[in-house]
Amino acid sequence: MAKIELTRSPFIKNTLKSRYPQLAVFIVMLVGYIFAILAGLIGTPVGSHNFSIVFVWIAWWAILILVVVPFFGRGWCAMCPIPLPGEWLQRGAVLAPPDKKPKWLNLRVPKMFRNIWLQNISFLLLALFSSVLLTTPSITGIVLAAMLFAAIGLSMIFERRAFCRYLCPVGGFIGLYSQAAPIELRIKDKQVCVTCEGKPCYNGSSAGYGCPWDVFPGGLTKNTYCGLCMECIRTCPHDNIAVNLRLFSADLAKPSTRMDEAFKAFIMLGSAMIYAGVLLGPWGMLKDAAYNVGSNAWFVYVFIFLAIIFGILPGIFTLGIVGIKSSTPLKHRFASLSSALIPLGLMFWVAFSLSFVLTNASYILAALSDPLGLGWNLFGTANTTWQPMLTPILAPAQTLALVGGLIWSARTAQKAANEVKVSSIPMVVYCFVLTSVMLWLLL
Amino acid sequence: MKRPELLTRILITVVIVGVVGAPLYIWSRTPLIHAQMSENGGWSPDVLRAEVGKPLHLKLTSDDVMHGFAVGQTDMEGIDVEPGKVSNVTLNFDKPGIYTFYCTRWCGLNHWRMRGTIEVSGSPSEPEPATVPLYVSLNLDIDAPHDARVIPSSQPSAMRGQGLAIELPVNLSAEYYHAHSPQQAFNDLSNPSLTDSQRWDVVAYLWQSNTDQESLANGKQLYAQNCAACHGENGAGDGVFDDDLKAAGDASAQTMTGAQDMKMQTPANFTDPTRILGASPALLQGKILRGGMGTGMPMWGSIFTEDQIRDLIAYIYSFQFDYEK
What we know:
The complex is a heterodimer of chains A (443) and B (325). Chain A is mainly alpha-helical. Among the domains of chain A are: 19-163, no CATH class; 268-356 and 389-442, no CATH class. Chain A contains 20 helices and three strands. In chain A, 48% of the residues are buried. Chain B has 325 residues and is of the alpha+beta class. Helices cover 37% and strands 14% of the residues of chain B. In chain B, the strands form two sheets. A five-stranded mixed sheet of chain B has the order 3-9-8-5-6, with no helix packed on it. In chain B, strands 2-1-4-7 form a four-stranded mixed sheet, with no helix packed on it. Chain B is elongated, with a radius of gyration of 26 Å. The N and C termini of chain B lie far apart (93 Å). In chain B, 37% of the residues are buried. The chains are: A mainly alpha (443), B alpha+beta (325). Chain A binds chain B through residues 23, 27, 30-31, 34-35, 38-39, 42, 44-46, 48-50, 93-96, 98, 366, 370, 372-375, 382-383, and chain B through 1-2, 4-5, 8-9, 11-12, 15-16, 19-20, 23-24, 26-27, 30, 32, 59, 61-64, 83-86, 88.
């Protein structure tokens, strides 16, 4: 299927090119974000009734993982409020570039950090504390505030969006899974970029800022690091940037060979399985261990968590591919073939989140009417009783997601295997076994 | 600076100040009474102030589990205080004094510690003369064992006892009932025409005749709400907190050496005839009013009214006597 250029529509193009629609969304998101911090810190400590927990970990998470990431890739990054205050300070402006540049350090991020290992670590840190984070409003408030201040701090020190690109715990996996999304931002004609003087899409101009994500759009072949901020659409003097509708997982046809991205796939896959066991499973001891941060049981939980993600899952995967005859080095094969785990991991998260979200979605109405737990009833829904939603379709929907993910992964494995000229059977078996385990955990 | 930039900055500043300031302002002006399990702090605040004749409006919320709220020594029905929700209650006091408010839900092992006070000020009224509890006037040592030396071989029946009592010159005054244990009454009924079993039946009847169905029903309800968590629904000392109490007692190595070699945290077993048939209503009143010093038994004197304690005692004896008709 050919790509469909959405920006051919004057409405879409003008909407994306103007700063004001995006700014309006940004302000709404920033208000929600700051309110979530506040609610976490001063609202009721009962997680199921606190705006911060309900709107961040139930409502936002549901929209992110079930809709935005699968269909819009980094669509969330395009409206995320976390980098805004830092970016405004860094730029010295909210709208178009000012006449004078502000005097911040504007350093380049050191080369050793120009990968997603820090994002892997930050995600793992949140994951290891997730049982407390997901249930304790004050912790959620502190973490949200810490992310905001970290983004501001990094914007003062480094150029562009260093936080989003290298530290954000969410941005890492959104980037990974955005390769599977049917939306992309690409250039129309490579030759135009080659001959373009000054490269304003990267360096900025009076029309807009240089790519905040430190990406040269002319070389963009994957969604992973494009934050869909639309700055390049504003700065390109040749109207050479397009937003396209494309086939799902188009980026995975040419798998990445980076180990940080490969391990991100394992981290996400393993985390989804562990979460399914801890948060949805019937094992009280496991829940206690995950919740009692700092206890001996929690350290055992951490050890097992890390062992699964960094040892067992990649270990078995390596065993499956180490014996395959290939001229491609093992490390290269490992990284390339792990791209098969991207659709699988995404669908694992979708299946897990369906259960988590549908079980807890009824809390949204109550929290909406009384976001701070002060006894308000703004929309008459404060006394909505908890009730799992769409229970009859949950198991079929999860099964469909997991089986669909397996088929999708098998197809991706075939393409990746073709790239490195090896058999895809070990990866397909690997994905099948993991899917079976996930089905057992969830159903 | 260009005009749109300036206006946008002003807009953002106003919105952010508003989104932070407005909730903070409202929050600071909404006094909530927070309920937490005792281990985490209990009621906060735990001292409230009110005035006679002026309604006291309270907003209560729970920060952890389901709690309840009631004010002792009043006829107030307990209200639920749900996690994350706000319950409203209005209190009116017609007499000054210090009232105890307490949790009415079994929220945890130290549920009974969830108490606070309401200091009600107002025009001084005639001070009511304090009634000396019977156990004090009788000079009863309520911490000493008062075991029955003789116990019945089967559960005494008030119905059987009623038939026997009609034929006997038995007269038991309310004063006698309050001051004597069933075993003392058994001893005082040393009629050669009665077997031991029949004497116990008569004691059961005499104890029943000092209460009525309404009191027993009220006592049962009070027991279920306030006592059964530790003493068990059937009085066997095996309530839902029993294991935790034992564990807490073992952990603190608190033991009381005495005739019963009782673990301090072990709730009394009301189905044990040795224990209950040796206890007079005055003794039980003392235990309830003051609590078990050094044990887990709370002090209920500031919570229950005299009538409520009377009903509870009557119900406790029903674990020994067959009151059914």
